[in-house]
Amino acid sequence: MAKEGLISVPAARPVAEIVDRLEAGLAAKGVTVFARIDHAAGAAAMDLPLRPTTLLIFGSPQAGTPLMQAEPTIGLDLPLKILAWEDATGNAWLTYDDPAWLARRHGIDPAEYLSVAAMTALLDALVHEANAP
Predict the structure, then answer these.
(1) Where does residue 107 fall: left (phi above 0), alpha (psi -120 to 50 degrees), or beta otherwise?
(2) Which neighbouring-strand residues pair with 76?
(3) Nearest-CA neighbor of 61 among 78, 39, 45?
(4) Phi, psi of 116 (to 5 degrees)
(5) Please, which residues have CB within 8 angstroms of residue 90's CB and are 6 or more apart in sequence?
(6) What is the C-alpha to C-alpha distance for residues 131 and 86, in angstroms, rounded to an integer?
(7) H or E element: which one contains 88?
(8) Which of 57, 84, 90, 100 has the highest count of CB atoms within 10 angstroms of its CB?
(9) Using CA atoms, how far apart are residues 91 and 17, in angstroms rounded to an integer?
(10) What domains are defined for the chain?
(11) How big is the chain by its Cα radius of gyration, in Å?
């Protein structure tokens, strides 16, 4: 079932490996990784089962600041995030917010800000590169 504002793409590798590739891609592009949160490890520490699920938080002030200047509430949704997760059948997925949807959510016209298009292009490229052979 599709969820409004979310983009989900099948991952070509297991969660840990795909997140490593995403992180390497961000480093190569000079984008700051703020955090890598292993939700499954947190759950395991509490003796709770959870399939592999890792959140990568990253961004650039050059892209996000103009949007926050226009509407500070978008800071709730920035920096950008990609969730790598495994479904019940063992398939890995990459899910992230559509930057244009985020802008509209906060009353920003995405067409007015080049950074929205740049964020979209970055996310598309990262996912493509991480899934490449």
Answers:
(1) left
(2) none
(3) 78
(4) -65, -45
(5) none
(6) 15
(7) none
(8) 84
(9) 13
(10) 7-131 (3.30.310.70)
(11) 15
Q: Two tokens at 114?
A: 């080049």
Query: What is the token pair recorded at 29?
Result: 């592009």
**Tokens coding 49:** 């089962």
CB atoms within 10 A of CB 53: 18
pLDDT per residue, tens digit, the chain (133 aa), is 679 999 999 999 999 999 999 999 999 999 999 999 999 999 999 999 999 999 999 999 999 999 999 999 999 999 999 999 999 999 999 999 999 999 999 999 999 999 999 999 999 999 999 999 9
Q: pTM of the prediction?
A: 0.94
Crossing angle of the two packed helices 15-28 and 114-131, in degrees rounded to 10: 130
| Whole-number Å distance between alpha carbons of 92 and 35 | 20
Q: What element of type H or E holds 112?
A: none
What is the identity of the amino acid at 29?
A: K
Q: Which amino acid, residue 40?
A: A
Of 133, 131, 130, 132, which Cα lies nearest the Cα of 28?
130
